[in-house]
Amino acid sequence: MTPRNRKRFGLVLLVALFLAPLCAAIVLNAIGWRPEGTRNYGELVEPPRPLANARFVFADGKALQWEDADWSWTMFALTGPGCADACLARIDELRRARLSLNQNADRVRVVVLDDALPADRLAALAPVVAARDADGVLDALRPGAGEVAVAIADPHGFLAMRYAAGYDASRLRKDLVRLVKR
């Protein structure tokens, strides 16, 4: 083999080395293969549902704004009917998970979708705020009586993850850490 052909062969081999993983990924995606294990604890919403046009109204009448300077993730606490002290304890876990993010805590807002909770008890959990789902877009995710489920929307207003009632708050916090990393 001449030196010129050897250089060409080296170049072709180098290009093939970089293109092989790309071709393998395209083929595996085309046949529908997905990895079995994922690192997230919550259930990914596939495909992500748009919530930007849904109306979430706070007690003062203002609507939830999706676009903000901090690119905030929104964690919705969905309470079941007859929510009492147990639900407030679960909402407090969400507040503490948010606060444990330290400098990134301002990138997550906690919104409780239940206007029947006592305002004074909820005020003690600040910065958690209460709102109502005016369009009922998240009603299908609501849990049974006395339980709390969680839904997380990305900064652009797409429902990205959900956690069923009985979720593990420490695992939810680990997912939050991965979501808000800069």
Name some characteristics of this structure.
single chain, 182 residues, alpha/beta, 4 helices, 33% helix
Secondary structure: number of strands: 7
Count every helix, treating DSSP H or I runs of 4 or more residues as helices. Answer: 4
First-last Cα distance = 51 Å
Q: Nearest-angstrom radius of gyration?
A: 23 Å
Quick check: average pLDDT? 86
Describe the protein's architecture and organization.
33% of the residues lie in helices and 23% in strands. The chain has four helices and seven strands, in the order H-E-E-E-H-E-H-E-E-E-H. The N and C termini lie far apart (51 Å). The chain has helices spanning 3-30, 85-99, 119-123, 169-180; strands at residues 43-50, 56-58, 73-79, 108-113, 129-133, 148-153, 158-163. It is α/β, with parallel strands linked by helices and 182 residues long. It has a seven-stranded mixed β-sheet with strand order 1-7-6-3-4-5-2. The model has no long low-confidence stretch (mean pLDDT 86). The longest helix is centred in the N-terminal third of the chain and has 28 residues, at 3-30.
Question: Which SSEs are present, and which pair or pack?
Answer:
Layout: H1 3-30, E1 43-50, E2 56-58, E3 73-79, H2 85-99, E4 108-113, H3 119-123, E5 129-133, E6 148-153, E7 158-163, H4 169-180
Helix pairs in contact: 2-4
